[in-house]
Amino acid sequence: MKYIILLLTSFVLASCTSKNTEQTSKYSDIIIHKQGQSLDDDDVITRACADFVLSKNSVYHFFNQSQVISEIQLHNEHDILPCYSEGTLILDDKPYSWRIRAGGTGVLSSNDEVINKACSEKACSNIPNLH
């Protein structure tokens, strides 16, 4: 009986591990096209934004750790900072362009979809240069 319980526990843990891998691996083929960009033409802000550089790993973690939010939530509840980095990735076998802003907001866009995302300071504390 003891061995049956151990065997069943192993199957359950293997099942959970498999599901967890699927959930965290839906973002792939991350390419960074621009780093340290600014939406503002002011020289001081442009120079400050040059330091907003993300690694592929940081982009991956941002999208995995952030929450989907509405356009209204994005504009009413979050600071849209002028510094950003952008690129492309694959989400669930579909190509998207992405942009992540220094304040912890981001967007994924395809030909037929826009997904706004936000990542709290706590959830994204492991991403350098964010917040």
UniProtKB/TrEMBL annotation:
This is Lipoprotein.
